[in-house]
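Supplementary Note 3. Input sequence used for the single-chain structure prediction.
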Amino acid sequence: MDGNSTTSPNESSGPGPQSAKLTGTLLTSAVVAALGGLLFGFDTAVISGTLDALKDVFDLHPHSNWLGMSGSFWFGFTVSSALIGTMVGAVLVGKPSDRFGRRAALIVLAVLYLVSALGSALAWDWTSFLIARFIGGLAVGGASVAAPMYIAEISPAKFRGRLVAVAQLNIVTGIVVAFFSNMLIDGMNLGGNDWRWMYGVEAVPAALFFFLLFFTPYSPRWLMSRKRVDEARAVLGKLGTDDGGVEEEIGRIAASLDLEHHSAKEPLFRKVYFRPIMLAMVIAAFNQLSGINAILYYAPTVFGMAGVGKHAALVQAVGMGMTNLVFTIIALLVIDHFGRKKLMIVGAIGYILSLGATTWAFHTYADDFAASAHAATFNQRAKQVAETVETGKELDIIQRETAKNIGDAADADKPDPMEIVVSDVITALQAADRNGAAEAVARAKSLAKEADAAVDKDRVKTGSTVVLVGMLVFIISHAVGQGAVIWVFVSEIFPNRIRARGQALASFTLWLVNALITWIFPVVAAMSPTYIFAFFTGMMTLQLFWVLLVMPETKGVPLEEIQKKLGIE
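The predicted structure, written as discrete structure tokens, is reproduced below.
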């Protein structure tokens, strides 16, 4: 993008681009590659529906203690394990895709997605789960680079922007699909293994992605880089070119490859590139210091902390995902009209208002949210033991949960009356004392009723409504600001000779900060969600000042002029 219009330089020169046609091979190949983006979004967001189960299955509750660190610390590490893989995958995918081709890289990534989905679903212990999630992260990181690269290289200039945008939108679509899938599976009442199904369903689109890739062509640009000119010529004939001339396109690709060969020796970390490097790293860091990905990953938990029931929290997460998708599309349509800086200012103000309101709600209604969560837990346990007494099923599950919960309460020096009653139910059932079990169930129901009576439902409703509205405004603010601007802005501030490495640096910064925020989120939230949302609010206030005082506007400015403004000659 040259900053003068919404078209690239190739698009604006002469009548050639007008003759380019969207061929069936091009459309099919782009859609198949874009499935990598959908899997990207699905794999990163699916964990949001399984958080409670992971705590129970792997004993990651706040009062657990491993190696001197709290369960919240290891819980955050578990959620961020895929993000660590993402950083590694984004860095490592470049050389293999250059050597073996973009399509071959995508095929390997599809296998990694499949292995991660099945491995997460079938994990037999915490370590195997971490490995499976890390493998999924490798696929996500690799796909974030290889999928848009493949689409860009097979597309004529006339369609390139729109087809690459499809891959980016598919990431947001994958997040929505993950939230929706989690909600459906939770509503199917599959028992204690529903979390495994949430991960396992990803195997279906991953397998589809794998098989469909074999029907897509190699990138003609990659074929040219490997001196396979005849094959590149045949592929270009199927994909189409800007002016309909295959030989002219062959010549342009050859010239471009020769330029890249000479500019590859240009170092990135030079004094002359200090400003674009800092701009790219700062905007990438602020992108995650808003809390966007952590909030998406922990969305049901955030709503749960606001007194919303588990299934309702999953439903609200779907609403967040849909809002994100709709406003991302709108923002992409208007970014070249309003400019990057204006959208960032609007987004930053929206961040501050929404996160500030959420911080206020968690502070003001903290006791009410805690009472509501306490009552929900008591009601769930009372219902669970009543069904066990009636059917005789899941006694072993309740026994394990009760032993763990009593241990947690003892560690926290807070005896849990409900778990003591549940323990009495287990003892009575083991002794075949049906009357004793029935009496204990009655006491459990009484405790749940008392807990319900202690909840001020009006205050909980008011507080949870503020949190829900705050999160929706937050998502809209991200979609119209950072979400739409970051990669356009980063691509414009680096000169051609180092653009790929500059974008890779921004990507690495984003994923690093994402992993750190995701890791510490449950640790701080366990103390008080007020603290973590106050932190996000403070960071977005700093971002607003950075945008106003430091960030340059790049809309309508030729790339050469941008470079001069940044001190690059």
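The chain is about 80% helix and 0% strand. The first helix runs from residue 9 to 12.
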